Sequence to fold (910 residues):
Amino acid sequence: MVAASTPPSLSVTLRVWRQAGPKTLGQFKDYAAKDLNPNMSFLEMLDVVNDGLTIKGEEPIAFAHDCREGICGTCSLTINGKPHGPGRAIATCQTYLRSFRDGDIIVVEPFRAAAFPLVKDLVVDRTSFDQIMQAGGFITARAGSAPEANGLPIAKGVADLAMDAAQCIGCGACVAACKNASAMLFVSAKVGHLGLLPQGQAERDRRVLAMVHTMDEAGFGSCTNQYECSAACPKTISHDFIARLNRDYLGATLRRAFQPEAATTDGGGA
Amino acid sequence: MATLDSKIPSGPLADKWRKHKVDMKLVNPANKRKYEVIVVGAGLAGSSAASSLADLGYKVKCFVFHDSPRRAHSIAAQGGINAAKNYQNDGDSVHRLFYDTIKGGDYRAREANVHRLAEVSANIIDQCVAQGVPFAREYGGLLANRSFGGAQVSRTFYARGQTGQQLLLGAYSALSRTVGQGLVELHPNSEMLDLVVVNGHAKGIIVRNLKTGAITRHAADAVILATGGYGNVFNLSTYARQSNATAIWRAYKRGACMANPCYTQIHPTCIPVSGDYQSKLTLMSESLRNDGRIWAPKKKDDAKKDPNTIAEADRDYFLERLYPSFGNLAPRDIASRAAKRVCDEGRGAGASGLGVYLDFSDAIKRLGENGVRERYGNLFAIYHEITAESGYKTPMRIYPAVHYTMGGLWVDYNLMSNVPGLFVLGEANFSDHGANRLGASALMQGLADGYFVIPYTVGDYLAGQKAGSRPSIDSAEFKAAAENVTGMSQRFLGTKGKQPVSHFHKRLGKIMWDHCGMARTKEGLESALQKLPALREEFHATVNVLGSGDTLNQSLEQAGRVADFIELGELMCRDALTREESCGGHFREEHQYPDGECKRDDEQFGHVAAWEFQGKDKTPLRNVEPLNYEFVKMSVRNYK
Ligand SMILES: Cc1cc2nc3c(=O)[nH]c(=O)nc-3n(C[C@H](O)[C@H](O)[C@H](O)COP(=O)(O)OP(=O)(O)OC[C@H]3O[C@@H](n4cnc5c(N)ncnc54)[C@H](O)[C@@H]3O)c2cc1C
Ligand code: FES
Fold:
């Protein structure tokens, strides 16, 4: 075992959302998961449960996962009402059974939000995030056109802050945690990352306007500053970036109102 | 017999790429819109290729099995990306990066490809910074560097412990821009399940929509595969769970040669296995070896002791002892084997005996705990989450794990396979890392291929193809390929056996790790070649895939991938058995020097082995591309 001492095994009841497809009705179903090693990850427990179901002839539970180390943003379970489960600053795949107790009933649901339609069981469609990125989440720099990298020094503090925002893994926990299903933390992270950097200035106004507009179109709710988003974020992205986004958005809107050219003709996007 | 013309341009090494760029044919800007290019994969290689080709004016369709391009496995790379910028003024140059990479690959890569990689490395950093990649910086605002294994200069650029994430998000942003501009048609949740070859040229693919199960056909003037590596053949690895070999394997079955499949990289510093439920192994970045010191107890009796109670004099810093000039930064294959030997001697740490220590106590004395946290905080956090132990207080326990595959589809200098019109980029090809890849060089290669090589070489091919001559998706070849795919799904769903797919994947992994892992022998490989066909038959006869083919069905996806892994595993063993030498990650116990180092046989094996499919149940054909070393002398690798 990796852990110095191996704690005793545990058994839990999983109350899992099952839904065959986007158009069918879903319901919770209980599954017993027995004699589990506490060093097992939550997703490894689902693997074991699924193998058991397959052997019994029952279709396994569909759930999204890939890297299993908290970086790809694929895993997306709401565990006992909390997106990504009980731990702070981690994704579902980094949740280990030692966070639970023998005999627990654990409720497992998908990330729920109008803009994340359900695909099957615990899997939702987060294409709306990609649409927001396609609208403006970039700095236009064609391959081959870049100047020498060290030609543009960037203060370490600025680069570090940009990196804090850039860490977003695009999982959607912020949306699932928000009672309005707002995507403001996600959008603010990208707007903050690119807007802090000198390279990102040319398209700054255009970017924030396009991203916020696409976010609204996609059916995300509005932000009422409850900050459940930051609390659920596996990368602890600060809600300060939302304040920054609001300032950027206001500034860009005003500039566009008074100087239509300034906010629309820079940048090379769509 | 396949024709393997490497198409390496003539002339001095440093002039080859420049000259070739001038010699290649061009497609005029107005005609580019008439050509359609399919890009499968949107990791670093695929997304950089798709956006660059779209910016040039080609019509691009990009397919990924992920729900978003941002989730490609490249996202998980931690440590960094190499580039010959020489910002540290420590003697780096294009030539030195070239030489380190050739030597690191144990003289089994092509000189010309590697030199080009080193040449364009500096442009990659410029490109990424222009896109807003937040690389680490010094207080003066200039870019920072760290050291990586196999090099004596500091040339690795990084973004905390999340370099792959930041580079991929940069490439994804370029891809997103071109999608938003209507230049790229993006197909997420779309898995390529067959390659369509018409008149000997790759002209399309068959795709299954993973959400709806719909099978669709897509024609193009050229097909680019950038589908990543195949390390999940071993089941347990540092790869993402969904990474798979299906795209390249199905292309192999359509005639593309598979080169050096046995060259796999075992990374020395990963968190050891803890139980049979385990689904993946987590890497502890090589960058940790900048400041961490690797050791094992000198005495077997100390192996189970709390490491903090083992006296300094009783610790064996074996890498520093064996390789004084590179020390803890010895290349991966060498460091992994050294750790294995220590554990085989009974000095391994932890209950399983499969572990050595990675110790930061000296670094903490030097830099303070906060200094160490600043450099590697997120890696220590990952270690703590998984093991419930603090790497600041107790040395980390690590063991080698499967991490990367140097082998892949054979490509020429233009990154085109032996099937004309089929290009292969990134980890999916075989070309640049020889028998062992140096740290921080995969990210460099993926972006070099996508941003700076394929935009030139695809044009050279397309210029020879008549615009608008794409075959119709109703042609016989498309129909046959689509039926092949549907038939496979139906067979899996109809088997109705007993065992879940994972059962076979675990067994495959064990066979591969035992016989085709860190150390290989003739007997072991022969026994694997007995076991694998039996496993394959059992799999097809007794696998249980429930549900239907016309919804999301993760068991069905897995079944296809594991079926391919089992076949590929067999080819890897065959390749390893035939290569009667040791080189880089391929270590045959029969071929070693008395001190345990790799004994190459350049006379017999100074070549690329490119395997050609001959039909089901037929032995594949081994083609050979000789490696002509014109500029560097093949010599015994020495890191001492
Ligand atoms: C944990 C870890 C850390 C690493 N750290 C470093 C590092 O620090 N430095 C370094 O240089 N390298 C590192 N590497 C290696 C490096 O990350 C990879 O080699 C590289 O990112 C591979 O990129 P790629 O673009 O070739 O493929 P990938 O990023 O694997 O992308 C594959 C793409 O292909 C798609 N795909 C695959 N098959 C199909 C199909 N059949 N149909 C449709 N789409 C398909 C996927 O959806 C995905 O978009 C690391 C690797 C690991 C595992
Ligand atoms: S599976 Fe990648 S973040 Fe959880």
